[in-house]
Amino acid sequence: MSNPALSSSAPHTPVTQPSLEAARKARFWDRIARKYATDPIADVVGYETTLARVKGLLCMEHDVLEIGSGTGTIALRLAPFTRRYRATDLSAEMIAISQEKLAGAPTPQLSFEVADADVEIVPLGSQDVVIAFSVLHLVDDLDHTLALALRALRPGGMLLTKTPCVGEMNPLITHLALPIARALGKAPQVSCFKAPDLEAAMVRQGFEMISVERHGTTKSKDFRVFTIARKPT
To answer: What's the pLDDT tens digit per position in 14-38?
Structure first.
């Protein structure tokens, strides 16, 4: 069930103080940010397919919010196709790396800022597109984050996501490897849902599902699901 405090009549109240859990997560990502920035893309073909798909959905009249923007690579690729692109991440170190990249490739419509995907970032109905890549499995409350995305969008606006559905991976990874890695401080807290669970959460929060796609080289084994959902008009 969605949070009553997220009803469309509620005023926009930006949250300025991070929660203790948000601060803990930020410390983890700050610590690994520089290494994360150098990690190679696991599936270059799938990655480029997804970016091409998103580019085809964007236009120069779009105001875009990206949550969980990491080190800014996707934002730098997509921002030139928009009117304004606001990229956010919980980790100050990730945003620092993004700013360094932006300094080397100035993009007037792009801005980076530290912000938590679990709090309201922008005013109600101010965005045409919300982008969430590799972040929805990391949020504390999936329904809550999706409700915030819905609030941020104008009627007819799109939510574009690519999400590792960890529940579709080998059970040895989800039930053994991940818990051990978390205990050692080598992995974040991860929600192990499957693609139908993600779709159900989007519908539950009021989105209309437009498309569910898999862009990996081997689609039958690709657990990174690309979804297009729309806020009803």
So the answer is: 444 457 888 889 999 999 999 999 9
**Would the pTM of this model clear 0.70, i.e. be above it?**
yes
Rg, Å, the chain Cα set: 17
- Domain positions in the chain: 18-165+193-230
Q: What is 18-165+193-230's CATH topology?
A: Rossmann fold (3.40.50)
Check the CA dihedral 137-142-148-153 and report its sign.
Answer: positive
3 state DSSP class of 85: strand
The pLDDT assigned to 18 comes to: 55
Which residues pair with residue 163 across a beta bridge? 225
Tell me the longest C-alpha to C-alpha distance in the chain.
Answer: 47
Q: How far apart are CA 158 and CA 228, in angstroms?
A: 7
How far apart (Å, rounded) are the C-alpha atoms in residues 53 and 161? 11
Q: Which amino acid is at 99?
A: Q
